[in-house]
Amino acid sequence: MSIEEENKALIRRVFELCDKENSLDAFLDICDSNYVEHWTDHDESLEEAKQLILSIPPISDYSLTIDHLLADGDKVAYRVTHRYTIVETGKKIQMTNTCIVRIADGKIMENWVSPDTLHVMQQLGILPPTEEIGK
Amino acid sequence: MSTEKENKAIHRRVYEEIWNKGNLDVVDEIFDDNYIFHPLPQRRGPKWYKEMYHDLAGAFTDFHCEIEDMIAEGDRVMVRTTITGTHTREFWGVDPTGKQISVTEIAVVRIKDGKIVEEWGSPDLFSLMQQLGAIPSR
């Protein structure tokens, strides 16, 4: 199996586990201790990434679907959709994240993310629709 | 040349020729007549793509896309870019701020017979709105 096929199989297996276990633990488990998450304006460590997940309020009906999964050399690029319900409010949230990860020896070393934060904030009612934000 | 290399070369032209040089003839050359942009599937075709170009390049002077990474497999290419520009005209209801912005986008395109037929765009709009001061920063 090529390195691309191996890396894709790893990511696919991890996301299938996340979907089945209603948790992102399987993903965090294959992140290297020196894992770095690259956001638009800052970098986060594995510990910071975990803290961010812990800050999510209790959810139910979690599912994860893989929309795109590509591999090229030591990188895997994916677009996934997380769907869940916020227990307290019953609000249904759909979040699509597009990411590129670099993998070495079966561990995720780096992750470049384009998060769907604005869309999630809008679904939570924290922010107005995009065209009304400046008003 | 492999399909992946050819597709990367096509996708590269979107940024280097269209967005960075303003050569809109390239839109007709490489976008399929039925090109679909997700998550706004009602927006389609090269004509709409040019409108989007004018909206963005008009609102942000010196609009520039730097290609940081490209991942290609089969009929798809994923590209990570850093988009920069200066906010000099109204954009989505936000009055000109004169601010310099820098935003990450990771986009996926599907290419068929040398034409871009579908795109899933994903710019970091949350960070953009923070940088424009339209929503509070962390």
Describe what this molecule looks like in 3D:
The complex is a heterodimer of chains A (135) and B (138). Chain A has helices at 3-21, 25-29, 46-54, 117-124, and strands at residues 31-38, 43-45, 59-72, 75-86, 92-104, 107-114. Chain A is of the alpha+beta class. Chain A has a 6-stranded mixed sheet with strand order 2-1-6-5-4-3. The longest helix of chain A has 19 residues, at 3-21. Chain A is globular and about 50 Å long. Chain A starts with a helix and ends in an 11-residue tail after the last helix. The model of chain A has no long low-confidence stretch (mean pLDDT 94). Chain B is of the alpha+beta class. Chain B has one domain: Nuclear Transport Factor 2, Chain: A. Chain B has helices at residues 3-19, 25-30, 45-59, 125-131; strands spanning 31-38, 60-73, 76-87, 100-112, 115-120. In chain B, strands 1-5-4-3-2 form a 5-stranded mixed sheet. The longest helix of chain B is centred in the N-terminal third of the chain and has 17 residues, at 3-19. The radius of gyration of chain B is 15 Å and the shape is globular. Chain B starts with a helix and ends in a 7-residue tail after the last helix. The model of chain B has no long low-confidence stretch (mean pLDDT 94). Chain A binds chain B through residues 4, 38-41, 67-68, 70-72, 75-77, 79, 96-100, 112-119, 121, 127, 130-135, and chain B through 4, 39, 68-74, 76, 78, 80, 90-95, 102-108, 120, 122-127, 129, 131-132, 134-135.
